[in-house]
Specification:
two-stranded antiparallel ribbon, Gyrase A, domain 2, Topoisomerase I, Chain A, domain 4, 2 domains, about 60% helix, four-stranded antiparallel β-sheet, alpha+beta, elongated, 5 helices
């Protein structure tokens, strides 16, 4: 039985990691209001090491459509600006003296619809990952010959409850983000 509980715990851990990755992807979808989380995946070369922008600068929301970045070292302005432009996030950056500005355009109705589609697509991909983790765990449970059919049913029931919980959490994320995109 301990092995089977471990199967559930391992599955829960994998589902949690997957959920956090999905949450990060969904949160990075633009919603009409500026969010500093969009900078978290952008890396900058600093003293031959790849570091995130937050580690070498101060970033803040200047106004509803602008992010202001002030590097700790003025020499990093162009490096940060280039990293932002070269990221696959579709951002444009401008610099002035020791600051970098990322300006966002207001969302059009068509852009909102596309962003909602993107959000739903990320959510569906996440649910597929969660269901695949359930399937793999079910196979692991059935491979174990030491447990009875009743224990298998109980473990599968627990696994289904776990899966349903993560699917519900993903649905909630998608709904929240879709409302954010549509309302703004």
């Amino acid at each position: 039985m301990i092995n089977n509980i471990n199967i559930l715990e391992v599955c829960k851990t994998k589902m949690e990691i997957s959920y956090n990755n999905i949450k990060k992807k969904i949160n990075n979808v633009r919603s009409g209001k500026v969010n500093l989380d969009i900078l978290s995946d952008i890396k900058v070369l600093h003293y031959n090491k790849s570091v995130s922008i937050e580690k070498i600068s101060f970033a803040t929301v200047k106004d509803p459509l602008t992010i202001l970045i002030k590097p700790w070292e003025k020499t990093m302005v162009s490096e940060i600006k280039n990293s932002i432009i070269n990221s696959n996030l579709g951002l444009s950056a401008t610099s002035h003296e020791d600051s970098i500005f990322i300006n966002f355009l207001p969302l059009t109705q068509e852009t909102r619809i596309n962003l909602i589609k993107q959000t739903k697509s990320e959510g569906e991909n996440g649910k597929i990952i969660i269901r695949n983790l359930r399937k793999l765990s079910k196979e692991d449970i059935k491979k174990n010959k030491e447990i009875s059919k009743d224990e298998i049913k109980s473990l599968e029931s627990d696994l289904q409850k776990l899966t349903d919980n993560y699917i519900k959490m993903i649905n909630s994320l998608v709904l929240k983000k879709s409302n954010e995109i549509y309302i703004k």
